Amino acid sequence: MPDSPVLDRREAVARLLRDRGELLVVTGLGSATYDVAACGDDPRNFYLWGAMGGTAALALGLAIARPDTPVLALTGDGDMLMGIGSLATIGARQPKNLSVVVLDNERYGETGAQPTATAHGVDLVAMARACGIEAPDDIRDMNGLGTLAERLRRTDGPLFANIKIDPREHPKVLPARDGAWLRSRFREAVLGKAP
After folding, report:
1. How far apart are CA 97 and CA 178, in angstroms?
2. Rounded to the nearest 5 degrees, what angle is found at the Cα of 173, between the Cα atoms of 170 and 177?
3. What is the rounded distance in angstroms from the CA atom of residue 9 to the CA atom of residue 155?
4. pTM metric for this prediction
5. CB–CB of 116/81 below 8 Å?
6. Whether 174 contacts 37, CB under 8 Å
7. pLDDT tens for the chain, residues 1 to 195
């Protein structure tokens, strides 16, 4: 429904990460990474600069390895559509500490704003539910966003959320791009020691 309310992506991500506690964050390529970095760089952020479609799968591996720590996969609709099979694995494994949040602007933002399948009615929430993952209806307002933010810090998942966002672009906030350094920094933050 084009007339339905949508949220500002930067405000939405800032709200989700406010008071994040021990939350580990894996970001999808492009805007999800820029939005998380705009909230402030943190060694517990793992910026996935490439590997389109791999965000939820990488976060699943992390959630399995760290079952007592909440893990968030924060990505866009294009990335999630490309990695849709990971929802089946998440549903089968049922990791209690994993949340997958999609920033859905119905566009491939990194390649020219072509419409994604969600612009044509594909329902990511229904897909997640079909895989046995709890998923509220599309989030389109700050009340729903606040409820989601509270859930991210708990370990009663898995949880899937699709946030409908305004397609407007924001200035890019680029965190470090050195993959080896990011991996080492993240590992040290998670394990409490250098690799």
Report:
1. 28
2. 140
3. 25
4. 0.92
5. yes
6. yes
7. 455 779 999 999 999 999 899 999 999 988 999 999 999 999 999 998 878 899 999 999 999 999 999 999 999 999 999 999 999 999 999 999 999 999 999 887 677 678 888 989 999 999 999 999 999 999 999 999 999 998 888 778 899 999 999 988 888 898 888 889 999 999 999 988 655
Residues forming a β-bridge with 7: 165
Q: Which two tokens stand for residue 60?
A: 């699943």
Counted residue by residue, the chain has a size of 195
- Residue spans per domain, the chain: 9-191
SS3 139: strand
Assigned CATH for 9-191: 3.40.50.970
* Token duo for residue 133: 């993952």
